[in-house]
């Protein structure tokens, strides 16, 4: 019933969509059920007063009703679906707090990075420098920007009172924009079966006023420990009924390492592997290109001219930066994926250091 009585604007719009779709379909279903029962009673064998026309086979008026009514319903449902698909796209930033209030121009969304583990939830607050396990909080009427991934198997992040479910997949990042409009404690869980501990993969989401949220953050910082790579690798191991945990600090690049599947020290990141593939694969030519990119990165600020670019076997000159798509976004031409690297230096960017992993996203 919480789906039909939500506390967030996105979930409210989804509830309204369910109601509108159901009513439109009932406009056909109810008359059909009524007429089925009516015909069975009206033309029963014992009713000799009913018309008997064994040669009847066509009625233009009846054909118009039979075809036009469902067609009108389909057109209406199609229009509603088209509009809501774009308006409620989880990747689309919010344009309102609720039906009566737009988002103020100076409002900064709360960023939360979500990691589905076996079988628990890990939440990073990168702007606040904290992290939690199996507990999530946000201030009322403040947009929330969720970035969602998983460490092993696919899960589904779902807070029914806040918004619809969004999948969490290893090596990929999905997005969800939402806002909570009422204070309270709400249930969150995985809506996708993921193994033995799935039934207990639950957490509490707290909608708080700004003062209460600030107090919650202070509590996390006071009671929490440090979440570094070693602590994460222990936390990542499968466990059930994990208690709430607070972390007063977390390694700045830990979420990106989880996203790129290289939290284990010495493991190559998915973004680095994709970059090698983009440059031609793992052969001799790619190694030469990689060496050149490393040389460019380390000496770009020193004014040293890089060696001549290696020419691949195809005859095309090697590139020292990610390929640009036609719309100007780097590496956007891969079906079903987009490489987001805002806030991260891509290999060959001339940042004077080793390449940082890019974020691999799946627009699910």
From TrEMBL:
Predominant location: membrane
Domain (Cytochrome oxidase subunit II copper A binding): residue spans on this chain: 107-219
Highest rank taxon of the organism: Bacteria
Key words, A-Z: Cell membrane, Electron transport, Lipoprotein, Membrane, Oxidoreductase, Palmitate, Respiratory chain, Signal, Transmembrane, Transmembrane helix, Transport
Bias (Low complexity) ranges: 305-318
Gene Ontology molecular-function annotations: oxidoreductase activity
Keyword check for Transmembrane: yes
Domain Cytochrome oxidase subunit II transmembrane region profile, chain residue ranges per copy: 1-92
Keyword Lipoprotein belongs to the record: yes
Parts of the chain that traverse the membrane: 17-41, 62-83
Membrane-topology annotation of the record: Multi-pass membrane protein
Locations listed in the record: Cell membrane
Location of region: Disordered: 298-364
InterPro entries (UniProt xref): CcO_II (IPR045187), CcO_II-like_C (IPR002429), COX_ARM (IPR010514), Cupredoxin (IPR008972), CuRO_UO_II (IPR034227), Cyt_c_oxidase_su2_TM_dom (IPR011759), Cyt_c_oxidase_su2_TM_sf (IPR036257), Cyt_o_ubiquinol_oxidase_su2 (IPR006333)
Family statement drawn from the similarity comment of this UniProt entry: Belongs to the cytochrome c oxidase subunit 2 family.
NCBIfam families: CyoA (TIGR01433)
Protein name: Ubiquinol oxidase polypeptide II
Organism of origin: Rhizobium viscosum (Arthrobacter viscosus)
């Amino acid at each position: 019933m919480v789906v039909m009585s939500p506390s967030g604007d996105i979930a409210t719009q989804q509830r309204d969509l369910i109601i509108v779709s159901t009513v439109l379909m009932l406009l056909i279903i109810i008359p059909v059920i009524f007429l089925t029962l009516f015909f069975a009673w009206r033309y029963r064998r014992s009713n000799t007063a009913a018309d008997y026309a064994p040669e009847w086979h066509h009625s233009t008026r009846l054909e118009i009703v039979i075809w036009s009514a469902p067609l009108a319903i389909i057109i209406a449902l199609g229009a509603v679906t088209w509009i809501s698909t774009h308006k409620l796209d989880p990747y689309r930033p919010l344009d309102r707090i609720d039906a009566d209030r737009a988002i103020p121009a100076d409002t900064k969304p709360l960023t939360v990075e979500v990691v589905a583990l076996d079988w628990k939830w890990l939440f990073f607050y990168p702007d606040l420098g904290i992290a939690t396990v199996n507990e999530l909080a946000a201030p009322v009427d403040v947009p929330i920007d969720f970035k969602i991934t998983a460490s092993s198997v696919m899960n589904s992040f779902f807070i029914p009172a806040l918004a619809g479910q969004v999948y969490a997949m290893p090596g990929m990042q999905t997005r969800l924009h939402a806002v909570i409009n009422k204070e309270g404690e709400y249930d969150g869980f995985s809506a996708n079966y993921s193994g033995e501990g799935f039934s207990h993969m639950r957490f509490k989401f707290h909608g708080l006023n700004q003062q209460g949220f600030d107090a919650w953050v202070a509590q996390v910082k006071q009671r929490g420990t440090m979440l570094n790579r070693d602590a994460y690798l222990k936390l990542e191991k499968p466990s059930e009924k994990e208690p709430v945990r607070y972390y007063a600090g977390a390694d700045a690049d830990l979420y990106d390492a989880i996203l790129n599947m290289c939290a284990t020290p010495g493991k190559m990141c998915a973004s680095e592997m994709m970059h090698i593939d983009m440059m031609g694969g793992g052969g001799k030519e790619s190694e030469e290109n990689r060496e050149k990119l490393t040389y460019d990165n380390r000496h770009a600020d020193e004014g040293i001219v890089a060696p001549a670019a290696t020419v691949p076997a195809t005859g095309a000159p090697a590139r020292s930066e990610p390929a640009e798509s036609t719309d100007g976004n780097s590496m956007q031409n891969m079906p079903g994926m987009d490489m987001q690297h805002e806030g991260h230096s891509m290999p060959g960017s001339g940042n004077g250091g080793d390449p940082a992993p890019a974020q691999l996203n799946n627009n699910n």
